[in-house]
């Protein structure tokens, strides 16, 4: 097996982890429980318990997912430099030349790492608010940074509920990155 195939396989494995662990968490995990008013009522969860569950999920998922993004992106990118100048392309393949294969791998690399800046730009405010809510409920000191809005330091239950919904909205939007990266990896690997 060629080096580019091995690296593509590593990238595909890492992007599979990112995609399918998120699918599992969103379909079978804690997210449907804390987002559905009916499920929350059935499980007798209040806002504080819902945010604690979100925090439990988020704090355990963040590290491994960032690692998966980095491994996937670096593997796909490295694979793009190891594509041999001559590759036997299947006649049914959507890829018609080596240059396309290299660009598909580079696009997969970019989409693999894209959730990180997207999270910082769009999701980070919700994350910080929810983490602050958890710290406040646990009685941990929260120091208000200079020039910050005090509403982000002390949030009420209604705001916390809205922040979970906001986090989930953007989180679901990130699926576009996970899914497209995985699909491009599949195309490159099957070529």
TrEMBL record:
Entry keywords, A to Z: Membrane, Transmembrane, Transmembrane helix
TM segment ranges: 17-36, 57-83, 103-127, 172-190
Alphabetical list of InterPro entries matching this protein: Anthrone_oxy (IPR013901)
Protein name as it appears in the record: DUF1772-domain-containing protein
Lineage: Eukaryota, Fungi, Dikarya, Basidiomycota, Ustilaginomycotina
């Amino acid at each position: 097996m060629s080096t580019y195939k091995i690296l593509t396989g590593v990238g595909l494995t890492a992007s599979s982890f990112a995609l399918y662990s998120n699918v599992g968490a969103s379909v079978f995990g804690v997210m449907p429980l804390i987002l559905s008013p009916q499920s929350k009522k059935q499980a007798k969860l209040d806002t504080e318990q819902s945010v604690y569950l979100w925090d439990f999920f988020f704090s355990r998922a963040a590290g491994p997912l960032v690692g998966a993004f980095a491994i996937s992106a670096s593997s796909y990118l490295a694979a793009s430099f190891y594509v041999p100048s001559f590759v036997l392309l299947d006649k049914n393949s959507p890829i018609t030349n080596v240059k396309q294969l290299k660009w598909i791998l580079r696009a997969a690399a970019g989409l693999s790492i894209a959730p990180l800046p997207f999270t910082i730009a769009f999701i980070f405010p919700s994350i910080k608010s929810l983490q602050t809510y958890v710290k406040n409920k646990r009685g941990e000191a929260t120091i208000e940074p200079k020039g910050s809005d005090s509403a982000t330091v002390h949030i009420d239950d209604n705001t916390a509920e809205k922040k979970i919904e906001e986090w989930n909205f953007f989180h679901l939007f990130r699926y576009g990155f996970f899914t497209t990266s995985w699909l491009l990896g599949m195309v490159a690997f099957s070529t």
